[in-house]
Amino acid sequence: AQSVAQPEDQVNVAEGNPLTVKCTYSVSGNPYLFWYVQYPNRGLQFLLKYITGDNLVKGSYGFEAEFNKSQTSFHLKKPSALVSDSALYFCWVTGGGNKLTFGTGTQLKVEL
Amino acid sequence: GAGVSQSPSNKVTEKGKDVELRCDPISGHTALYWYRQSLGQGLEFLIYFQGNSAPDKSGLPSDRFSAERTGGSVSTLTIQRTQQEDSAVYLCASSETSGRTDTQYFGPGTRLTVL
Fold this sequence. Notes:
The complex is a heterodimer of chains A (112) and B (115). Chain A has 112 residues and is an all-beta fold.
């Protein structure tokens, strides 16, 4: 069965430090992977996606993610966190049959 | 240009009443999606409209839920005989084409509270 795991409900990072939000997946066929962010009391916004090509994907607000096929991972990263990055982050995957599966979300808290 | 809009932004209703939630997608977007986000929980797919094809209703939780999309644009999600467990934020999204590799653009959501 297709699945997405975001193993951390919450990630705490000091401002200026690098951040990583983890995502692993299980799909049949080629995966299409997405990261979306939800700021407090707002809808979801697209950050980045991997469809094919370069494994390192760069997105909005300085975020990037690396597609690792052998580890079936698509971790979200940013070299230097900002307090304004504090939000809820969702990893999505579309696999064989175009089924869309979401992770449960990771709350990122960036503190001064 | 204008993004996805949803109305109302908040809806409080009594158990057993019917509610209608509206979504205006980005003009020209072929695909339209409805999701539900319950407090403290993640996203739940409800229904997907893809151009002129039959909608994918596989995520609708019960027959009390229905949705339509008129003229390939505006969509209405209807919940009949609302229950307290229907309380959630209902999110609508649209994408330019029908492919699920496409970026989805979300509206701000409708917060439904069933008393």
